[in-house]
């Protein structure tokens, strides 16, 4: 077990040892049954169909037999204590784990009914369809224009300069950044504020017209104003894209997502409509987490 997971387990042990107020009984012992996710993990018309997924780092099993559908055009939030496997599971969805030598992914993972891990699959094309925005904004040390034009150029999406200009403008507009940067498209992106850089990275991700955007704690380095802008953007993007967002902010999960998935020590404990997760969670561990008993 990793240090992080050990810390979480110790935290839970501590809260179990705590004195209970007179008259209150201790809840029945919490058991996580492998693969037995409670709630509504499946969808009628899934964009991703994920079955019996396990992820290993060397000998360590970081993801334990998870099955989940991600519906078309839904926003699903992944929540859970640090080290529970949210980023690992997210990275399976566009094969970002491929670049980690010791990482092995098992199970059946399908995107639009096609095997994501088919060795014949073009991973560059996959990552254009399933884009990713990271925790720390990572613009290229290029101009604002070139950052957004990068993907369309390598994927040959624009034949003429005017087509490329259109893609750059519309992506920046969708990312809520056009008005702020339209007069300095040649300025270097690394000179922008953190919130602007993050919206630029979102513009860069959507410039190739992805079908899915994966976001791993996209607001954790942003102030509340920049966070609000990114959240508005997620709401707008959800009209045309499938969005998977990892967040440590339960308020954020509640504000932006349709369904919420609660991870714990590599298990997927509960998936339900976001309202239900935050008002009447089915699993005891979900309840403990959202009421702040650990995490
Ligand atoms: N590159 C790696 N090599 C080895 N182990 C890893 C690697 N990345 C993650 N792990 C392990 O896999 C487990 C899940 O980690 P992961 O980063 O997916 O958790 P997380 O839920 O995203 O946590 P956080 O909220 O802190 O970002 C942890 O035990 C972690 O130590
Ligand atoms: Mg993470």
UniProtKB/TrEMBL annotation:
GO biological processes: phosphate ion transmembrane transport
SUPFAM superfamilies: P-loop containing nucleoside triphosphate hydrolases
A single cellular component GO annotation: membrane
GO molecular function term, any single one: phosphate transmembrane transporter activity
Domain ABC transporter: from-to ranges: 48-290
Keywords annotated in UniProt: ATP-binding, Nucleotide-binding, Phosphate transport, Transport
InterPro entries referenced in this protein's UniProt entry, alphabetically: AAA+_ATPase, ABC_transporter-like_ATP-bd, ABC_transporter-like_CS, P-loop_NTPase, PstB-like
Region feature Disordered, mapped onto this chain: 1-36
SMART domains named among the record's database cross-references: AAA
UniProt keyword Transport, yes or no: yes
Name the UniProt record assigns to this protein: Phosphate ABC transporter ATP-binding protein (PhoT family)
The organism of origin for this protein: Marinobacter persicus
